[in-house]
Design goal:
By secondary structure, the protein is of the alpha+beta class. It is 40% helix and 17% strand. The strands form three sheets. Strands 1, 4, 5, 6, 7, 8, 9, 10 and 11 form a nine-stranded mixed sheet that branches. A five-stranded mixed sheet has the order 13-12-14-15-16. It has a two-stranded antiparallel sheet with strand order 2-3.
């Protein structure tokens, strides 16, 4: 067939998320670990459509207005008003949280609250694409939504879940940095920052790791803070120490910042979160209080989290989230506080592979490959392959009789470490040869004893 050289089959910018089989198998392995941990804490899976109404995606309080992909059909019909060019009331979802709020509104009477769900869908963002930043990517989210109130211990449970996931994935040492947005809000109230500027100040703090403290200090002064005040704020958020040392510092500050009840509330909530984390036996080496964590998204109102790898800080956040009080309620007309975390798995997986923190899995899931030495034995190869599968062994059967060396090379390239060799002589003698590709070892055994030998080798492999 002649190749169409004018056809550009390269992926569009920002959509280069395709994985080769060995990488895709790793992604599925990670998804299995993540979902297993989520479910062990009682989270149930849901899935929402890729497309939502624009009025939902642009609802008050989200950050998606400038990154939403609107949906416009290419083919139009004069009979269908909705498909006329220029008319769009739909867009692709840019995160999982806003669609969750709409999902709850649609199924309010069918759900049990607090509602704990996990979701591992693709999301879409029309932002500038660059290395490590995608316009389509998979997010693995959990959220707990309450009606009227939600226990602070759900906030404490989130770091325990994060710690368990990344411990199981085994990607090295990590630290979950925890703060409470009320503390930052109370601090700016203490410095008499106008209410409408407090959000801007918190967003400024959120840029600290990107732009440095001198730039943050200057930007705070642009919001009306004096040089001395902005310096005090930098000193405050840069405080380091053990969890207890930071908590004691905050409690002392609470007595000074008396006129800000929200500061004291933030400190109290943070103390409760830490108490819960300790009850859940999360190692103290895996979390800390970091007063510089701000989470610039407007809808976060309380506890906030950022997780980073200790030896690979350039990767950035590998899991983040927090508590929000008003996002879901605006869809149903009642108070529905929530708390959640998100793992941007597509970006994380690429970073882990590029930094050799994780390695791809074998390209093929089969554990054993049945070689084809004689075309007339294909029926027997099929029978013996089925018997192995019935014993829980994953088997790839070679249907074409080519040189045995090529078949062994194929198995090795696919990452299959055990090959089964049965020629005409072995068939007559009801025997077979097991070849271990990694060591070169060969074991001759009877067909009747094949399963026992394979199970033994698979345990050692």
């Amino acid at each position: 067939m002649k190749q169409d050289k004018d056809l550009n089959y390269n992926l569009p910018s920002g959509f280069d998320i395709e994985l080769i089989p060995s990488e895709k198998r790793l992604e599925l392995h990670l998804l299995n670990i993540i979902s297993t941990v989520f479910e062990s804490y009682g989270f149930t899976p849901i899935e929402t459509p890729a497309v939502e109404r624009l009025e939902i995606l642009q609802a008050k309080g989200n950050q998606g207005d400038n990154i939403i992909y609107e949906i416009n059909p290419i083919v139009t019909s004069s009979e269908d008003d909705e498909s006329k060019p220029g008319k769009s009331d739909r867009g692709l979802k840019f995160d999982q949280t806003v669609p969750l709020a709409a999902y709850i509104a649609r199924h309010l009477n069918d759900l049990v609250f607090p509602f704990s769900r996990y979701q591992m869908d693709m999301v879409f963002r029309g932002e500038r694409a660059k290395k490590g930043r995608y316009r389509q990517f998979r997010q693995c989210d959990i959220d707990v939504i309450g009606r009227q109130d939600l226990s602070i211990f759900y906030d404490a449970q989130m770091p325990a879940i994060i710690a368990e996931i990344f411990s199981r994935i085994n990607i090295g040492e990590f630290i979950i940095r925890i703060n409470n947005k009320k503390i930052l809000q109370g601090l700016f109230e203490f410095f008499e920052v106008e209410a409408e500027k407090i959000k801007l100040c918190i967003q400024t703090i959120d840029t600290l790791e990107k732009v440095g403290k001198q730039r943050v200090k200057q930007d705070l002064q642009l919001q009306g803070l004096s040089e001395e005040q902005s310096g005090q704020i930098i000193s405050f958020i840069e405080l380091k120490g053990t969890v207890d040392e930071v908590l004691n510092f905050l409690k002392q500050k609470s007595s000074i910042i008396e006129k800000s009840s929200i500061f004291a509330a933030g400190v109290s909530e943070l103390q409760s979160v830490i108490d819960g984390i300790r009850k859940l036996n999360v190692p103290e080496t895996q979390y800390c209080i970091d007063l510089s964590i701000a989470r610039g998204l407007n809808y976060y109102t309380g506890t906030i989290y950022e997780t980073t790898l200790i030896d690979h800080e350039s990767i950035g956040s590998i899991c983040s989230g927090g508590r929000y009080d008003n996002l879901v309620g605006m869809f149903v007309g009642e108070r529905m506080p929530g708390v959640g975390i998100s793992i941007g798995l597509t970006r994380l997986l690429r970073k882990l592979l590029d930094n050799n923190i994780l390695a791809p899995m074998s390209a093929n899931p089969a554990q054993v490959m049945v070689l084809n030495l004689e075309e007339e034995l294909i029926g027997f190869y099929l029978e013996i392959s089925k018997k192995m599968r019935d014993q829980g062994i994953r088997v790839l059967t070679e249907f074409k009789s080519i040189k045995i060396g090529k078949q062994l090379k194929k198995a090795d390239k696919l990452g299959i470490s055990i090959c089964l060799i049965i020629g005409s002589e072995e068939y007559k003698n009801n025997s077979c040869r097991i070849k271990m590709l990694k060591t070169g070892e060969q074991i001759d055994t009877s067909i009747d004893n094949l399963n026992d030998e394979l199970q033994k080798r698979l345990k050692l492999n």
